[in-house]
Every structure is written in C-alpha cells, then in structure tokens.
C-alpha cells in the first residue's frame, strides 16, 4: 500500500473542499500575508505528505510546532521550557541536518523554520525518534518571525544552510542574504552570536561574502576575510549532497555579531 497522502480534496472524501489539510497542524499562509506586496525568498509548493509525516504533524505539531502568524512576541524560555541559548535555522528542508545538530548539542535550543509541510512532518518525526526535546518547528516566513515575533537580542545564532540560490538574474532579488535581511537579523542576534551561512552556488557565496563583509554589525571570523573551512559540526545537508553530485563547490561563511555601538543604545534619559 502506498505511504502517501495526496493533497487533492477530491481524493480525500472526508475533507470538504477548502478545509485545512491538518486542522491541528501547520496552517497555509499563517500570517495572512499572501497578498502582501513583498518579494519572498521561497517558492510556495504543494508537496506530497507521506502517511508518516502526516501522523507526526497530527501527534507532535500541538506539542512542538507553531505557526508564524506575526501576532505575538514569542517567549522563548516558555516555548522550550528552559533558558538555554536559542539558534534559529531558516530553511531546514527535510530537517536531517537539523536533527543531527540538535542531537549533538542538547544544551542548545533549535528554532527550526520552513514553509515546507513534508519537511516539518519529517523533522518532527526525527526529533521524536531521536528523543530530542530541543527542537521547535515554525511554519511560515522567517522574515515575519524575525520582524514580528522575536525580541531584540533573542538569538544566540542563526543558520542559513543552502538557501534557494535563485540563479536567474531576474530572481536575484528573491535571495535571502541581502543587506536588508542582514540588518533585520542583526537586531535579533545578541552580540557575539554567529551567523552561519553555507551555499553550493558560487555566485551566491560571493554575494553573501560581499553583503556580510560590508555590514557594520558583523565581522568575519576568518582573519583573511574569506570563506571559512567547512566546520566539522555542520552535517552534510540534503541540498548540499545534490550540489556536490553536480560538482558544485560548497562555501561556508561564519560571521560574528559585533557588540552594540553606543549610538545604538537608547538615550540615558529615555
Ligand atoms: C534549497 S532548500 C535547503 C534546505 C536545507 N537547508 C538543505 O540544505 O537541505 C531552502 C529551504 O528554505 C526554505 N525557505 C526559503 N525562504 C524561507 C523563508 N523566508 N522562511 C522560511 N523558510 C524559507 C524553503 O522552503 C526550502 O525548504
């Protein structure tokens, strides 16, 4: 018997047309931002959700998942049940690398965000099977999470592994790593936090290096100002494997959030 659940309502006689796929699970367009005139870094895709992923979404979403609805600032201590450092990962895909990193570092909380429903189910399953309690899964646009739902200095790190490369020139504006995004991320990263990016698309790697090097809130951890050697703690990701199969070169970038400048502090009499 097939393991897959098809998303088409007509093949789900029990679900009326227009009803949510997962009533207690991740919602489509949780922030209601579909009609917002904003360029997005992801391509909405309707993908097949396997029975195993659907089961994980049903069982575990109420416990470990949350919608990025832009409606509140998250209390991260409450979300994770402890005050351990929190690292945000944007775009975890199917979540294999995320789960491995969470298992290797149980003292760090991982806020893992993507819009991809099968990946959300997959990561919940991996966390459950691995007995990992330090992962929470956010559904929606990470920009809205950063902008509306995280307090200043909330994060101890940010990971962006193999973001969509948007190779066509007319799509470059959809790339995540741009000055505006880096400025927004900087406000949510405490001083000393590491922004770790990796990509197998060399022109994008060059863009990342240029944008991050020019940004006043970050400093390269590499004394020579270049790419970092691949850190041992970063597992091979699914997209990375596909890139390597095509002969692509992988580059890692590790930049540190610099201390707040005095000009960024509120005035003494405020
Ligand atoms: C090319 S995939 C890489 C996945 C994974 N990191 C890997 O290396 O296998 C990029 C992922 O980022 C997600 N993504 C892109 N922009 C996003 C955003 N603004 N908010 C949340 N997820 C995003 C996409 O849905 C996609 O799953």
Automatic annotation (TrEMBL):
Compositional bias of kind Polar residues = 1-10
Q: Which residues bind S-adenosyl-L-methionine?
A: 89, 114, 141, 164
Check the record and name the InterPro entries matching this protein: SAM-dependent_MTases_sf, tRNA_(Gua-N-7)_MeTrfase_Trmb, tRNA_methyltr_TrmB_bact
Question: Which CDD domains did the record assign?
Answer: AdoMet_MTases
Give the EC number(s) listed in the UniProt record: 2.1.1.33
Pathway(s) per entry: tRNA modification; N(7)-methylguanine-tRNA biosynthesis
Looking up Pfam families in the UniProt record yields:
Methyltransf_4
Instruction: Give the top-rank taxon of the lineage listed in the UniProt record for this protein.
Output: Bacteria
Task: Write out the residues that bind substrate.
Answer: 168, 200, 237-240
Its recorded reaction(s) are:
guanosine(46) in tRNA + S-adenosyl-L-methionine = N(7)-methylguanosine(46) in tRNA + S-adenosyl-L-homocysteine
User: Disordered: where is this region?
Assistant: 1-32
Keyword annotations for this protein, in alphabetical order, are:
Methyltransferase, S-adenosyl-L-methionine, Transferase, tRNA processing
Function of this protein? Catalyzes the formation of N(7)-methylguanine at position 46 (m7G46) in tRNA.
- Record's PANTHER family? 3-DEOXY-D-MANNO-OCTULOSONIC-ACID TRANSFERASE/TRNA GUANINE-N 7 - -METHYLTRANSFERASE, PENTACOTRIPEPTIDE-REPEAT REGION OF PRORP DOMAIN-CONTAINING PROTEIN
Give the family per the record: Belongs to the class I-like SAM-binding methyltransferase superfamily. TrmB family.
Its recorded name reads tRNA (guanine-N(7)-)-methyltransferase
Q: Which gene encodes it?
A: trmB
């Amino acid at each position: 018997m097939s393991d897959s659940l098809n998303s088409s309502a007509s093949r789900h006689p029990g679900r009326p047309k227009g009803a949510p796929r997962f009533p207690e699970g991740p919602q489509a367009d949780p922030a209601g931002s579909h009609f917002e005139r904003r360029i997005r870094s992801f391509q909405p895709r309707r993908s097949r959700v396997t029975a195993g992923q659907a089961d994980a979404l049903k069982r575990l979403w109420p416990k470990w998942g949350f919608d990025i609805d832009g409606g509140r600032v998250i209390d991260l201590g409450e979300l994770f049940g402890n005050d351990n450092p929190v690292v945000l990962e944007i775009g975890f895909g199917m979540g294999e690398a995320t789960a491995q990193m969470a298992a290797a570092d149980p003292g760090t909380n991982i806020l893992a965000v993507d819009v991809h429903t099968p990946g959300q189910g997959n990561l919940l399953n991996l966390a459950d099977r691995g007995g990992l309690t330090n992962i929470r899964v956010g559904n929606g646009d990470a920009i809205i999470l950063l902008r509306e739902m995280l307090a200043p200095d909330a994060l101890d790190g940010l990971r962006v592994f193999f973001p969509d490369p948007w190779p066509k020139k007319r799509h470059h504006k959809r790339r995540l790593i741009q000055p505006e995004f880096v400025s927004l991320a900087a406000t949510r990263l405490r001083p000393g936090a590491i922004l770790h990016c990796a990509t197998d698309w060399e022109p994008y790697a060059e863009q990342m290096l240029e944008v991050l090097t020019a940004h006043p809130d970050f400093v390269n951890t590499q004394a020579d100002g270049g790419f970092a050697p691949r850190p041992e703690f970063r597992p091979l990701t699914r997209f990375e494997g596909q890139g390597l199969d095509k002969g692509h070169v992988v580059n890692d970038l590790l930049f540190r959030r610099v201390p707040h400048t005095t000009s960024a502090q509120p005035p003494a009499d405020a």
